[in-house]
């Protein structure tokens, strides 16, 4: 009997079955399917630049541990830098192609001044920081009037966050004294030492306030849910020349975000990555990091930033005179890559 031009006989069926059994013996079915679904190779490497915060280093280790970049068949290099100036310089010079996990307020004035950059995706949408103090007299944000607050440079991420928090609680920012200390880790050390009255720091120490002799005055994630904490941005050159690679990188990171928030095995996987990236000196901080992520679902599932969120950041920049005018949404944002990344993720 013939069907669609194929001669199907008992002998042919047995041969076909034997071939399938041989393949199954040679490799697990999941590997066969993965090989069949493998995305085509790309003729280039995507160069990533990120900050050197503990949270970023752990997520990079987790991404490698999970093998998501390999799953989407994209070759990458990752460089970690200590400050936003180096990060922006790396992208503007096209030495790097994309930053995945960083505040992006500085990207907007750079674009205004002619930098060929675009914000391409959302990342961590809630501020994973609290405002800490070791001064027992400071119990509320209102108590900060006339006090010193440690932040980064004026107009930088930490400073903008604190100003927005003060305003939310009806405190005039001119009534406090800002001290430029640097990173949130450095700010926390100054708070513990009593060198400043208060300052923002990460939630990895949130469960250890008694140990460090501090207390949380306010939680940024609950007080400022409208503040888009982190995003991803890329050079226009990379968008034009490495578009498919950027899409695959975004898909891999998005899959990791969903894993951290939803997968029942995420905590132990995260802690393994924490030990790889940071060491086992203080596991409590690592467990607090993943606990915060899972309880508050802080990362974007679809990588989409709204025009309202971009306007919020631009309004802050205009107030600090970091920008001269508000830029059109399409001038600073290109979400087409994020949309294609989530489609690729769903299809995969």
Automatic annotation (TrEMBL):
InterPro entries reported for this sequence: SsuA/THI5 (IPR015168), TAT_signal (IPR006311)
Domain annotation SsuA/THI5-like: ranges: 65-266
The keyword Chloroplast belongs to this UniProt entry's keyword annotation: no
Signal peptide: none
Alphabetic keyword roster: Membrane, Transmembrane, Transmembrane helix
Key word Transmembrane present: yes
PROSITE patterns: TAT (PS51318)
Stretches that traverse the bilayer: 12-30
Protein name in UniProt: ABC-type nitrate/sulfonate/bicarbonate transport system substrate-binding protein
Species name: Mycoplana azooxidifex
């Amino acid at each position: 009997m013939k069907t669609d031009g194929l001669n199907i006989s008992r002998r042919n069926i047995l041969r076909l079955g034997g071939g399938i059994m041989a393949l199954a013996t040679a490799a697990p079915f999941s590997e066969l399917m993965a090989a069949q679904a493998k995305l085509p190779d790309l003729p280039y490497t995507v160069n990533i630049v990120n900050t050197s915060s503990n949270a970023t280093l752990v997520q990079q280790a987790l991404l490698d541990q999970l093998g998501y970049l390999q799953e989407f068949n994209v070759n990458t290099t990752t460089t970690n830098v200590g400050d936003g100036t180096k990060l922006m310089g790396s992208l503007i010079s096209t030495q790097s192609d994309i930053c995945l996990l960083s505040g992006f307020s500085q990207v907007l004035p750079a674009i205004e001044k002619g930098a060929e950059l675009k914000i391409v995706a959302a990342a961590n949408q809630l501020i994973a920081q609290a405002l800490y103090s070791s001064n027992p007299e400071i119990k509320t944000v209102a108590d900060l009037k006339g006090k010193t607050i440690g932040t980064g440079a004026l107009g930088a991420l930490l400073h903008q966050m604190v100003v927005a928090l003060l305003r939310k609680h009806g405190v005039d920012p001119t009534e406090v004294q800002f001290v430029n200390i640097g990173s949130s880790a450095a700010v926390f050390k100054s708070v513990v030492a009593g060198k400043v009255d208060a300052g923002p720091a990460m939630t990895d120490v949130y469960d250890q306030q008694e140990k460090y002799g501090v207390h949380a005055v306010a939680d940024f994630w609950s007080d400022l849910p409208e503040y888009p904490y982190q995003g991803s941005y890329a050079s226009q050159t990379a968008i034009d020349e490495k578009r498919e690679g950027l899409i695959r990188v975004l898909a891999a990171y998005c899959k990791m975000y969903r894993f951290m928030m939803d997968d029942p095995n995420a905590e132990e996987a995260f802690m393994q990555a924490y030990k790889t990236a940071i060491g086992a000196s203080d596991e409590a901080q690592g467990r607090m990091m993943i606990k915060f992520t899972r309880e508050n679902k802080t990362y974007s599932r679809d990588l989409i930033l709204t025009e309202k969120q971009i306007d919020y950041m631009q309004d802050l920049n205009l107030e600090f005179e970091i920008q001269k005018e508000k830029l059109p949404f399409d001038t600073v944002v290109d979400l087409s890559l994020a949309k294609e990344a989530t489609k690729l993720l769903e299809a995969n």
